[in-house]
Amino acid sequence: MPVPSVNLAQQYQSLRAEIDAAVQRVLAGGWYILGKETAAFEAEFAAYVGVGHAIGVASGTDAITLALQAVGVNPGDEVITVSHTAVATVAAIELTGARPVFVDIDPVTFTMNPAQVEAAVSPRTQAIVPVHLYGHPANLEAILTVARQHRLAVVEDCAQAHGARYRGQMVGSFGDAAAFSFYPTKNLGAAGDGGIIVTNRADVAEQTRLLRQYGWAERYVSQVRGTNSRLDEMQAAILRVKLRHLETWNKRRRELAADYTTLLAHTHLTLPHPVGDVTHVYHLYVVRSQERDKLLTDLREQGLGAQIHYPVPVHLQPAYAGLGFRPGSLPETERAAQEVLSLPLYPEMSQTALEMVCERIQQR
Description:
The protein is α/β, with parallel strands linked by helices. Helices cover 39% and strands 15% of the residues. The chain has 13 helices and 14 strands. It has a seven-stranded mixed β-sheet, sandwiched between helices. A three-stranded antiparallel β-sheet has the order 7-6-12, with no helix packed on it. The longest helix is centred in the last third of the chain and has 18 residues, at 246-263.
């Protein structure tokens, strides 16, 4: 493929010496689970986000699940979120035994529409999970205002927003807790699965550490019913290397996004742009087109790695039909699913590759 949607091999080659040294350090040390590398990465990531605590876990999905449990979400509760997201957000809520309740999105930012949150609150509502989708922060001030009025917990889903800022402050530092994914394609990606929970609440941090390892406060003695969800030493060591480069990578993503916006300004596409006082990190460069499917086919036939994030809203997927949401219940979400298209974008992408994508779109 002349222009892939992402190029992880190229990223590895650019950091090969650093990553190989980190891997060898772990292998030679002979300690592979919850050791010095994980502890060091947790401290470094907490400092990066600007929070007091970070707890490494096995995946971003686990991070949401355990964070919700740690802030007090129990079976039978309700959690407000969006349907235009990776299904992991909703799967994580259901893993707590709670019921997801969907609200629609803002059509420009693709993030939670705060105006709909108030009406979705019920006596069973325990938490809100705003998703900072595609690298654009959700409207946290408005969401937090509703949460405070109703004494609801807020767990930020930051899986696509490593390094994004809302009014100058890192996403992940606003809610009661936040969840990050280190799936390989993320802005900060591991060489496998991984996730982390960040929080300024000492009680939430303590509970999360118990939950991630069988409820152990001391080995083999469970204080609560926990699970097995641990960020391993190999991934932590690799992530420590990559974290040092994250700000540079995010800067490059913004440069590429600006070039896309300039070159595609006079096309039929609706282009993304930051709304409000935010720093967008362009995990994905997502355009809108009423001829999306034709455009996608055309780009792929030319070897240009466009994708759809996400083609079927969660509330319309067969597995979630029992939640009671029907076609038409979330109109902006459903319209976005028919129109969104993610163009190739990754820090190692060349200007030539970007221009190839733009030239093909301009020819249509």
